[in-house]
Amino acid sequence: MDEDDKQKAALGERLTLLLRTAQKNFVHIRSFMRVMDIGLHAAGPEFYPAMESSLKGMFSESQPEPPSDLLEAAAKKAVETRLSDAASAAEAAILLFGHSVLDSATTDLCQIIAGAAPDLWEDALLDRKVRLRDVKECDSYMSTLHSILKSHLSEVERKSLIERIRLITQKCYPGLQPLPVFQSMWSGDFKLDLKRIESIDQGRHDIIHRAELSGAVHDFEDDLEYCELTLTYLVKIVSLRFALPLGDGGYGPGVEKLTVTSVHKGGMA
Asked: Of 116, 188, 247, 249, which residue is least crowded by CB atoms under 10 Å?
């Protein structure tokens, strides 16, 4: 095995580990979703006595309690509101978890692409100032490129999620080259929809910076699924484009959420 093959094998292992880790994280997130669902159903009877007692405590001896049926209805409504708020907070947390898995993976994918094809980054680095000491310490042009690229990738990490996804697709299939088409394991072709990712990203921003937890998340399960499919899609186009071997994913041999159907058409919205 020559050095090029060894490098591809190493990058393939890194890509496979990235996918496996991400898949396991999504499994953990869904386990949390299930625990949350079970907990919410069980919490009502636990909350009710304390809520009823709290409402009774609002009345003094000079102010008699309302009829028991009204008190019961008020306590039930208060418990439902509390559970609804708790569900919204949990859904917000789930969206944050899913977004963070995708966000971290895009940074790693940029680094893997840089390892597989550093020359693809030359255009962005041609006008960068280089210290003479750095040039002297590097024994070749490629060594200098790798040194500058390392610093550049630190800047890429600070770019928005959308910018990094665009960067990945452009490095893999520049210009008007069509992206591969993948079929989801459920139905239909998967298409990379940047507007949807942007909407999910905005939801994350609102949760973190505006503390919008109650009623802030809509279709969070679908959004979580889309984050996972987007991550899988990006891993697979990097694997295809740079011929990096991709081992079995975290779901086990033969289980793939996305399978390539064509490399002659595709795109993103």
From this structure: 188
Candidates 42, 215, 208, 26; CA nearest to 105 is 26
Tokens 């990094």 appear where?
Answer: 164
Predicted local distance difference test score (pLDDT) of residue 118: 84
List of the chain residues with pLDDT < 70: 1, 52, 56-67, 124-147, 176, 186-187, 210-218, 248-256, 261-269
pLDDT score at 110: 93
Return the pLDDT at 263: 60
Cα dist from 203 to 30, 163, 180, 232, whole Å: 19, 17, 28, 21
The string over 150-159, giving b where at least 16 C-beta atoms fall within 10 Å of a residue's C-beta and e elsewhere, is eebeeebeee
